[in-house]
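wait is this the right file?? whatever heres the structure
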């Protein structure tokens, strides 16, 4: 038996994370494991567990904020470092428990997180008075959706048609290079086939990337005009018994965590998407008998397996850069959806409910009570504000935009992003 007085933080943390593997939700465990393995243990693992103190933890925070990124220069995002502080605290707290009693107290409790101030440019807006970082105005969102829809109209275009002068000129305007246009697969890749539908759903529903990737056709109720959010998909270490390194997290008892009301336009869009998906599936099965994986996913690879979120994120980034648009991430569409609804006058409680908030006590404490039954179709409200995007944006003052941003951040923080 090892002498507890000689136990290092690394030895204890590795034992702890193995024990927690069957206790935590898998995506939570993966996050803890990744942070411990790549950041925390390399920096603090050599310390004796009993000697870890607030100084060491504060030093870790300072180092990671200044130069914590792996393989490249620069510090980690403050939100990431704050999570690391929480992970360190959980590990050390377990060492104080009665069944362990390895240390008398948790030194991480003595560390007070200091909010990192962003520059005005980062925190508010750019010189063109556009929306805040990672959040679009109605006009900016309309511009992106318009360009993506135009590109989507060229999906799977035959080579003969693609190489017509007018089509080549149009594709170049959409950021395609000569080399891409010559490629036989150019109009069959995610940028052309997947990106517009994915961004359409993300921006008009406010769903998380992981929720959209896990969305199944059975989750769409066309009679009630709602999307039922049951689960999310996550990626991590592939287990021996698994074919792929992804897994689904479902809500407790299989109950939806949110019912997202959608519009007639959304339903027509989804029905057409389903029709095209079935057509492509039949083509694939004809060429590859028995190779299709029917997981009933709205967004999937040609063989039916889940898409990889990072690939879509990278494709979006590349499209935005090639079209000289303001940068935004996939999560930014959730932020945008939340902010625009608040600016449209939708009560914060309805916005929180739409995005998946399930704590009634929070709704009563922070907002008005959310009545059951005849709630407004927020999908219709969002569609209307986009249809009148220029007029909608022009009526807003800078103060109103900033206030809406703060409310949106509060809501997203309370529901885990």
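ok assuming it is, sequence goes like this
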């Amino acid at each position: 038996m090892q002498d507890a007085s000689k136990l290092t933080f690394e030895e204890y943390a590795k034992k702890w994370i193995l024990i927690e593997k069957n206790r935590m939700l898998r995506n939570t465990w993966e996050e803890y494991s990744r942070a411990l393995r790549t950041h925390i243990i390399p920096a603090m693992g050599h310390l004796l567990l009993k000697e870890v103190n607030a100084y060491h933890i504060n030093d870790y925070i300072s180092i990671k904020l200044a130069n914590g990124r792996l393989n490249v220069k620069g510090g980690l995002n403050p939100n990431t470092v704050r999570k690391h502080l929480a992970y360190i605290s959980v590990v050390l707290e377990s060492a104080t428990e009665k069944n362990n009693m390895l240390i008398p107290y948790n030194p991480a409790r003595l560390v007070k997180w200091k909010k990192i101030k962003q520059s005005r440019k980062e925190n508010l807006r750019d010189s063109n008075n556009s929306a805040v970082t990672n959040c679009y105005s109605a006009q900016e969102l309309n511009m992106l959706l318009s360009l993506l829809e135009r590109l989507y109209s060229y999906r799977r275009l035959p080579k003969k048609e693609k190489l017509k002068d007018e089509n080549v000129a149009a594709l170049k305007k959409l950021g395609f290079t000569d080399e891409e246009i010559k490629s036989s697969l150019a109009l069959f890749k995610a940028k052309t086939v997947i990106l517009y539908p994915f961004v359409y759903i993300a921006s008009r529903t406010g769903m998380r990337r992981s929720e959209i990737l896990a969305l199944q056709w059975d989750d769409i109720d066309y009679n009630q005009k709602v999307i039922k959010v049951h689960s999310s998909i996550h990626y991590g270490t592939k287990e021996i018994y698994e074919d792929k390194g992804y897994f689904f997290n479902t809500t407790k008892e299989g109950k939806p965590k949110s019912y997202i009301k959608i519009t007639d336009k959304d339903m027509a869009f989804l029905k057409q998407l389903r029709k095209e998906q079935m057509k492509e599936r039949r083509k694939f099965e004809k060429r590859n008998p028995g190779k299709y994986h029917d997981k009933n996913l709205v967004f999937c690879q040609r063989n039916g397996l889940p898409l990889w979120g990072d690939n879509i994120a990278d494709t979006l980034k590349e499209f935005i850069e090639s079209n000289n648009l303001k940068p935004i991430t996939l999560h930014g569409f959730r932020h945008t959806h939340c902010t625009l609804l608040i600016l449209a006058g939708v009560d914060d409680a309805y916005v929180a409910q739409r995005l998946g908030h399930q704590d009634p006590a929070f709704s009563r404490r922070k907002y008005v009570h959310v009545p059951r039954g005849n709630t407004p179709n927020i999908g219709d409200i969002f569609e209307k504000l986009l249809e009148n995007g220029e007029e909608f944006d022009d009526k807003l003052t800078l103060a109103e935009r900033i206030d809406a941003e703060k409310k949106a951040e509060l809501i997203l923080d309370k529901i885990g992003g």
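DSSP finds 20 helices and five strands in the chain. so i think its the right one actually
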